[in-house]
Design a protein that fits this description.
Layout: E1 8-15, E2 18-24, H1 44-59, E3 65-73, E4 82-90, E5 95-102, E6 105-114, H2 117-121, E7 153-158, E8 161-167, E9 181-182, H3 186-205, E10 213-222, E11 226-227, E12 232-242, E13 247-255, E14 259-268
Antiparallel strand pairs: 1-2, 2-4, 3-6, 3-10, 4-5, 5-6, 7-8, 8-12, 9-11, 10-14, 12-13, 13-14
């Protein structure tokens, strides 16, 4: 069965290493049934993927990256919306700058450190691993469903941390054509680990699991360009800052074994679970 994960391109303007695209967000994208079922929101990680894929087709850049800098999500995108994507390729520094906006309203921005073709093969294939036990039913802890659940289990959790697992499948919404999971999707795995931690806390306190929002990261770094199918990933999130009003910071990493990726993610959990239009919110905490 084919999947629908791409935006509709309405218009294009090209100027050297710059490109501006007018896009529509189709209401039937395969992300929406699971992100979130009650109030669909375009995943922030999908926006990163769109920037890479559209730059590759319109500017001829690499469709792969293993670092993200100054990644910010400011306003959500929902089914049926129109948005403008501005792309700028800095070939000298190997970076792709992107910005999604709707007039004066900024959806997301970031700088992506592009991976050269030879880099893509280095260290991609970590040892195959057997499936891990599933002590917690992950779907009961997250506010999303179906293929948008990118973790398998919570291995351990406490008042300020959670460690989750994922055996990379052979296919999925974010996979490459050759079956590998791009490294930039790791930021979504981290965000889902934070969401799983929040779900564990909600369960222990007898409160409903509710959406949260990923605000961004100053720097996401991954030592590989893809995660190979069959790889066993451990995804850890530790809270290192909590502020009044639902703001928080988490130190996250992905191991397989050895550290493959690291980042500090800023998140926001609104008291009102339906506050999808909050000026600081763009992305439910699961990513």
């Amino acid at each position: 069965m084919s999947t629908r994960t791409a935006p509709a391109i309405l218009d294009e303007q090209r100027d050297g290493d710059n490109c501006t695209l007018q896009l529509a967000v189709p209401a039937d994208l395969d992300y929406f049934p699971g992100h979130f079922p009650q109030a669909p929101v375009l995943p922030g990680v999908a926006q990163v993927g769109w920037a890479l894929q559209l730059a590759a087709s319109h500017l001829g850049t690499s469709p792969h990256c293993h670092e993200m800098e100054a990644l910010k999500f400011q306003h959500i995108m929902q089914p049926g919306e129109h948005t403008t994507l501005v792309l700028r390729h800095d070939g000298a520094r190997g970076r792709l700058h992107f910005a999604f906006h709707d007039g004066e309203r900024q959806h997301s921005t970031g700088r992506l450190v592009l991976a050269a073709p030879q880099e893509r093969q280095a260290g991609d294939h970590v040892p195959m691993a057997p499936p891990v036990p599933t002590p917690d039913a992950i779907a009961e802890l997250l506010p999303h469903a179906g293929e948008m659940i990118l973790l398998d289990a919570v291995l351990e959790h406490g008042p300020g941390h959670a460690c989750c697992s994922r055996v990379v499948p052979a296919r999925g919404l974010f996979h490459d054509a050759d079956g590998a999971l791009p490294a930039w999707v790791g930021v979504e795995l981290m965000a889902q680990a934070i969401a799983a931690w929040a779900g564990c806390q909600a369960r222990e306190h007898g409160t409903p699991v509710r959406p949260g929002f990923l605000l961004g990261t100053r720097r996401y770094n991954c030592n590989v360009a893809t995660f190979a199918p069959g790889s066993l990933l451990r995804v850890e999130a530790r809270r290192d800052l909590h502020e009044e009003g639902g703001m928080g910071m988490f130190a996250c990493r992905i191991e397989a074994p050895g550290v493959l990726a690291e980042a500090r993610l800023a998140v926001f959990s609104p008291p009102d679970a339906g506050a999808l239009s909050h000026p600081h919110a763009t992305e439910p905490r699961h990513g």
